[in-house]
């Protein structure tokens, strides 16, 4: 089975630059601990249900250090 990896920094740079606010969830687990996976899913469902106007974007834990400065470039005061 081949490994599949998405470079978070490339993905963040390609996000549509629209007026829709974005919610970045950092530290999303990519390992198989079911408890951590369940917490991550619950967090996602909560954000999607309570803030449907937001675009939800997950950043896996391994990419946090790389993604933080990239996401900071896209932050706006609003």
Keywords for this structure?
single chain; about 80 residues; two-stranded parallel ribbon; 3 helices; about 45% helix; about 15% strand
Q: Topology, please?
A:
Blueprint: H1 8-13, E1 22-28, H2 34-50, E2 55-60, H3 64-74
Parallel strand pairs: 1-2
Give a structural overview.
The protein has about 80 residues and is α+β, with helices and mostly antiparallel strands. It has helices at about 10-15, 35-50, 65-75; strands at about 20-30, 55-60. The protein has a two-stranded parallel ribbon with strand order 1-2. β1, α2 and β2 form a beta-alpha-beta unit. The longest helix has 17 residues, at about 35-50. It is flat. The mean pLDDT is about 85.
The helix/strand series, from N terminus to C terminus, equals HEHEH
Strand order across the largest sheet: 1-2
Structural class: alpha+beta
Return residue spans where pLDDT drops below 50 for at least 5 consecutive residues.
Answer: none
Percent in helix: 40-55%
Can you summarize the main beta sheet? 2 strands, parallel
DSSP strand content = 15-25%
How many strands in all? 2
- What is the C-alpha radius of gyration, as a whole number of Å? 13 Å
Overall geometric form: flat
First-to-last CA distance = 44 Å
Q: What is the helix tally? A: 3
Mean pLDDT: 83
Summarize this entry quickly.
The chain has 78 residues and is α+β, with helices and mostly antiparallel strands. It has helices spanning 8-13, 34-50, 64-74, and strands at 22-28, 55-60.
